[in-house]
Amino acid sequence: MSQTGVVHVNHGISRLAPSIRRSLLKDIIEFPAKEFSSEGNGRIPVRSRDVRIWRECLSGQTIVLTGLIPAIVDRLEQSGVKVEVIEHRRFPAQHKLRQGLLKNSSGSEREFLLALKNNPIGQIEVNTRDEVVQRILEIAHTFPKAKILIRLSRIADADNLCNKLRLEDPELDASVKPSEYWPAKPSRVLFTCGALIGGCDNKDWDIILLPDPAKAVKKGFFGSMRIFRNHPYRCYSFVLPSLSLCPPERLLLEAISGQVIYSKISHKSAVQVLWQKPPSAPVSGINERCLKWKQDNYWKNDRRNDYIAGIARAFVTDNHKKLKKYGVPFHQGKPHFTNSSSPQVVVLVESQAAGLELQKRLPGWELKCNGTGNDDNTQSDCPERLIITTTQAALNSIDADVLIYAAGGQGVGALRSTIGESETRPNQTTALIIELADGIDKIAVEDVRDRRRGYAERGWKQSGSGLPSTPGKHTKVPVAQEASP
User: Fold this and answer.
1) How many helices and strands, by DSSP H and E, does the chain display?
2) Which of 32, 80, 353, 459 is the most buried (most CB within 10 A)?
3) Whole-angstrom Cα distance, residue 259 to residue 406?
4) Is the pLDDT of residue 260 over 80?
């Protein structure tokens, strides 16, 4: 019998039922950190300790920051835990979109509005700093009754951003907080700087915006965000392509402002997606997306797993006949992709169970799974051959020459910071993603179309015998549905 668990979602902090084992979530709610100390003899010893971003209350429940809930729920479901999510967040009128705004919007504008409506917290990817100004204006106009606090680390940045905002909209009530005191009647849009935030009352603000997420994850700044956790609020961070964060910092940013909810980043693509058509005979009579549906049709589908393993072997054995069959580009008689003579081949799967099934067919391949402890990860003598779960990849990032996307599912969020592009490979040839156009049922077909659209938005070239004929509608899995007041 599968384990069950209840997750209570509140504004800033959420609670996990005592029945949920924290060992399943260790790499999501903890991270290792080095400590330096002086022993007085000229030596500086270095010690490693686990930093916890959770605590246990008297009733035995685990308390975590709400931004981590989507990753936690995904991990639990992948580990076979049946999860019941109880939404306790309620938002007052000032958290509602301007009346008629969504109805009269279309295209990318509508997608952005829906991302805000469905996600009280989230990361918004932007191309340039000027785009940050435009997004702040959109948020201010979308929630005309909301009071907005914009937190930066330097007064010069606060002044600069505020001036740009005023130039775009002179009627917007925006100002920079004086350094010597907290105003009794602050502007509707107030810029602050620095980690300290003394005198700020969480009830005075409806939306918190973080234009500089690299500073927001630092110790003092991160700690001061805790004052906003009890009152209804929204929190969004703006992430530039140049942002470089280590795994603990990415974890802390997600804890503060959730996952990426919107992206229109334009990439100079060095990635090609080759679509294949795997065996698609349905192996389950279930017609709804659930754990059993995933297990039957993806994780333990023998025909599909044999097909994936065959593709992986073709790349590591340099089987030209099969590679040509899959549509791999050739140049002067050799496969034309990065490091084709000795490629790093990675198979991306959704769960540990799926990874173990493929590992049976790919002996000697390393499995990096759900981070439940070292015993769950197997090592190999061939580090260029790797099977990894999507959650592990999202936490640690991977760089592949050939990535076989066996996870299926909605959207391509699992590939964020996963595969190299031209910014990291300026003088190299294309990296490859091998995709699977599963036609198991209507759910799988719609997922395929959604992923195709996601690749198109990133500017990645798509081809192959399994390329879907139409991109289909765009669907996003919201972090949380907007609650009624």
Assistant:
1) 14, 23
2) 353
3) 22
4) yes
